[in-house]
Amino acid sequence: MRVELLTIGDELLLGDTINGNAAWMGRRLAESGIEVTRSVVVGDELDLIIAAVDEALGRADAVITTGGLGPTYDDLTRDALAKAAGVALIRDPTLERRLRARVAAADRPLAPMALRMAEVPEGAGLLGNSAGSAPGLRVALPGGVAYALPGVPFEMRTIMNEVVIPELVERAGAPQVARRTLRTAGVWESVIATRLAEVEALDGIKLAYLPSTGEVKIRITASGPDAVQRLSGAEELTRDLLGTLVYGTEDETLAGVVHRLLIERGRTVAAAESLTGGLIGAELTAVPGASKTYAGGMITYSTEMKHTLLGVPDDLLREHGAVHPDVAAAMAAGVRDRLEASYGVAVTGVAGPEPQDGHPVGTLYISVAGPGNEPTVISPRLTVPGASAEVRNVIRRLTVVHALELLRRDILGLDAEHGAGESEEDREEKG
Amino acid sequence: MRVELLTIGDELLLGDTINGNAAWMGRRLAESGIEVTRSVVVGDELDLIIAAVDEALGRADAVITTGGLGPTYDDLTRDALAKAAGVALIRDPTLERRLRARVAAADRPLAPMALRMAEVPEGAGLLGNSAGSAPGLRVALPGGVAYALPGVPFEMRTIMNEVVIPELVERAGAPQVARRTLRTAGVWESVIATRLAEVEALDGIKLAYLPSTGEVKIRITASGPDAVQRLSGAEELTRDLLGTLVYGTEDETLAGVVHRLLIERGRTVAAAESLTGGLIGAELTAVPGASKTYAGGMITYSTEMKHTLLGVPDDLLREHGAVHPDVAAAMAAGVRDRLEASYGVAVTGVAGPEPQDGHPVGTLYISVAGPGNEPTVISPRLTVPGASAEVRNVIRRLTVVHALELLRRDILGLDAEHGAGESEEDREEKG
């Protein structure tokens, strides 16, 4: 069962919008055992859309389009599919009624243009869209089936999850592929790959390493009739070989795992940030229910405020400046105590573009102070090539990852082991 | 001059990576007056890559590929282009020498596989890549020219800016298109569009509205031989009609504009955050040089800490809870004073998923306290449909935008005018 994606919209070709929809769809389809063989973006031009749909169905069994279902003159998907199918566009009375009711309830006048959203290629199936204005469409074409979905991400995901994926899965039959993703943070890809040679050698098992800033995901793919069992064995072996390097699976985030560990232990954390400017707090509070585990934070961006707000000793700052392991430790203990939390996590360092107090860009001290403990301090080595503006943001993000990983390890009572940071050879960001 | 983009890599079809490269390239090419007519993603399969390159050059004058230039077995772009051109892959002695020298300098052994990066389709031009390992390629094919670039974003951008775009611009001749983007925050798209009817009516002028969370960009495109002058006139009229709604142009960020306004006036700002958890501080400190304008912040996530750390009166919190305009005002004045800043900005509200103290999800109070002023407080109306997890993040992001916009207007001495927040009809996120 081969599927192609067709994303429609000038703004995507012009780069105004990044194609997050296609990435989400590719991923959900892959999780469901359905192979996406090509992903295409075309602009809002009738003939180009028709051509792209026809070509896609010349190669694959189904094409899923997003975009072009709105009411304005550049929304052409209905027209394109009707032409490709050789049928007329007809006004659906139920859709029209619903549209008029919706608009009246919002106390707005109905622009005549909006009635285009009640038009449907004759014979097309409607894919219910409780979330938005226009339904999705299923249109039978000579080369296969075309699914047309709205471009608004939440609406697209709703219809994909509720209608399209179940249909495609049913048509495809039993999946012969099973997948599992394990997540690590603060460890070099090459360190992980070296440990997993045994897993790579297993029959019917493929490993993919998916690095992002400071993290590496390992995707294990098992294929064949007993894919599920093979996957289980491969996962067990991988976990044996990686031990505590693995912090979570699938879509778990480091912050989500930290939150869960704190909840389980009835504990809280406070964060003292300098170069990260609030990113650690933002990450921790992105987790629903964070009010139970995140006590609050201080962004002590200047040297002076580290003393005023966190109680870092004046003479320590005068002698060493703000970028020093003892300063990080004092910040961690200070924020823990002032916010009355179980744990304090603190970061101080040099994001750039300029060195600070004689320390080069990339110097970093991270500390975690636990309940009644002496603070732990680490200093990950970061080497990030590239232009100034990018270096700064990459260093900030790496700092967040290293800080959350140190916190996780501290809560679990593990050694503060880090495989150092990003190096030029290991930096394999694609796309 | 028509160009197609071809992004190569399984991880893109599987949705592991979002196609940021294609968006960046589409944008830079459009800025340079070059039209991207299609953008395609294929996986790491030799025949599919060759077919996609040939099809692209059947439609367009040039195709730009990214990805597949690394050393591993799934890096197939060199092979594909050599086959498409009907030539052999040959080992380039200069490349080999450079590769060996680089690896020796990093004190690492040379994996034989790495020598694949010294192979080149016979006759291909090398596009110097000072930033990375493998050079880009220029390959002449029957249907046109193929440019092959590395997938690592920084390397791709370097070669695009230094070599490919200048070449394409020269081949294309004088651009007949000129563009300008103006940026607004906290205003409904429909409000803006209504004001700009006169601009839409101008000859040779097209307007595109590009909404993102809480912001709307307006792209003015002028075409024809006198595009530059037409653009100038259209921009002037647009600015007349929108007045102070426009906060910046092109890639300026709201935080960058706030930083600039503070620097110009020798002033600083501190932020007191609750539901945003540090996002405001993170946004302000993302601007290089922020240490001159951002004094620091407090993330007072709990009701209690608003009193302990910011001095919000106990009885106010006991009577009204944490979500109240007077609490926001006290937070703003409190953080301004405690961090000895010129301005304090504060937010309190309900991000969800649960209501708080009887306030529904989306309740929001934002305050700015200026030098020696009474704080200003606004309460933007947010209506965000959708599933809980998404609502929470969208509300947090909208809060950041509204807070920064209020700060900007306060610094400039403007009314705290906001066109309210996102509503279901106006939410036009694509992709």
Structure description:
2 copies of one chain form a homodimer. In chain A, strand 16 and strand 17 (376-378) form a beta hairpin. With 431 residues, the first copy, chain A, is of the alpha/beta class. Chain A has helices at residues 10-13, 20-31, 46-59, 77-85, 93-105, 153-172, 189-195, 197-200, 227-242, 254-265, 279-285, 303-310, 314-320, 325-338, 388-411; strands at 2-8, 35-42, 62-66, 89-91, 119-121, 125-127, 136-141, 144-149, 177-185, 205-212, 215-223, 246-249, 269-273, 294-299, 343-349, 364-369, 376-378. Helix content of chain A is 40%, strand content 23%. The longest helix of chain A has 24 residues, at 388-411. The first copy, chain A, folds into 3 domains: 2-172, MoaB/Mog-like domain (Molybdenum Cofactor Biosythetic Enzyme, Chain A); 177-249, Alpha-Beta Plaits (2-Layer Sandwich), CATH 3.30.70.2860; 254-430, Maf protein. Chain A is globular, with a radius of gyration of 27 Å. Chain A is built from 15 helices and 17 strands. Chain A has a 6-stranded mixed beta sheet with strand order 2-1-3-8-7-6, with helices on both faces. In chain A, strands 14-13-15-16-17 form a 5-stranded mixed beta sheet, with helices on both faces. Chain A has a 4-stranded antiparallel beta sheet with strand order 10-11-9-12. At the A-B interface, helix 1, helix 2, strand 2, helix 11 and strand 14 of A face helix 1, helix 2, strand 2, helix 11 and strand 14 of B. Strand 14 of chain A pairs antiparallel with strand 14 (294-299) of chain B. Chains A, B: Residues 4-171 form the MoaB/Mog domain. Chains A, B: Pfam families: CinA, CinA_KH, MoCF_biosynth. Chains A, B: This is CinA-like protein. Chains A, B: Belongs to the CinA family.
